[in-house]
Amino acid sequence: MRRVTRIALAGTATASLALALSACGGTSTSSSSSTDSKGDKGLAIAYDVGGKGDQSFNDAAYAGLKRAKAEFKYDTADVEPTDGETDADKTQRLVSLAKQGYNPVVGIGYAYGPAVKAAAAKYPDTTFGIVDDSTVTAKNVADLVFSEQEASYLAGVAAAKATKTNTVGFVGGVDVPLIHKFEAGFEQGVKDTKPGVKVLSQYLTQTAQEGGFSSPDKGKTAAEGQIEKKADVVYAAAGLSGQGVIEAASAKKVWAIGVDSDQYKQEALAKYKDSILTSATKDVAKAVYNVAKSVKDGKPESGIVRGDLKSGEVGLADSNPKFKSDTAIQDAVKAAQEKIISGEIKVKSS
Predict the structure, then answer these.
(1) Phi–psi pair at 151, nearest 5 degrees
(2) What average pLDDT is seen over the chain?
(3) Can the peptide bond before residue 300 be classed as cis, meaning omega within 30 degrees of 0?
């Protein structure tokens, strides 16, 4: 299995093709009406829970598809998830895309693990990608993973420097190992920066099916509870649910820290942006784009492809002028970043 770092790849892929799915299925955008013909089609992505419009994880993947589409001028597809779907539903979605000739086909989120494994076995000549899962091992699968704990550590540094109450909060969407990485890095960053700061942590649900990544109301309620306990900076790693956290922070005039995408820049969150201190970002867009480019170049990525602080694929956004101009926060974040990259700071992942 060829293992490759993303930093060695730069490139492109896509255009949008509409897949008509049943009412219990998803929808997608399109630039072509062909449906079942084998051919030189390009990137297809299947969204995680929350779908397009989450202003976070899924929208980052869509940004990668749009970049590929603009450069490669080929048919692409992006397909929504469905409520209560099974692994079999996910597998059928990926198989349908591969059958139609899309290559690569990328599952956005660890929940696609079993589906990617099954579809990749059925279509060995198609490259599959999966974001946030490193367990699928096949010659035609790229496991697109990130060191989220490193960006979260920097978010913890920023939170510790920004808090005036010495209490900050963490809201995780679902109680799973992936989100534990966000929590662990954040708490370590807080404690290393200001040991006396209290970190309040809460997970919204035990499973994704219960809506932990797709329920802004749950995120809002959790954040309100933490703010009542004096948290004046709240970090959410909760997908679409994080919008509720940001809304609550804005209403209570405290800081929120976004995740995955630079949420300060998201149009749907514009009315709350002055309360978004920063966002712990991971470049899902680049990962999706790069796997598409690798296929286009005839050198498909496979194996574990990891983005981290050193490669620039995780980090801390500085779009908020108040964050960018705060020299105490900026100096602390820069110092921590240098120590993580050099190996002086080892960030915990659980």
Answers:
(1) -65, -35
(2) 89
(3) no
Look up residue 13 and give its two tokens: 């892929």
Torsion sign across C-alpha atoms 96, 100, 105, 109: negative
Contact 79, 65 (CB under 8 A): no
Spatial separation of the C-alpha atoms in residues 10 and 287, rounded to whole Å = 10
- 8-state DSSP, 21: -
Q: What is the pTM of this model?
A: 0.84
Angle between helices 148-162 and 327-342 (to 10 degrees): 150
Euclidean distance between CA atoms 108 and 271, whole angstroms = 28
Listed residue (256, 205, 269, 182) closest to 226, CA to CA: 256
CA distance 283 to 299: 21
Alpha carbon distance 223, 242 (integer Å) = 9
Name 322's bridge partners. Answer: none
The per-residue pLDDT for 45 is 98
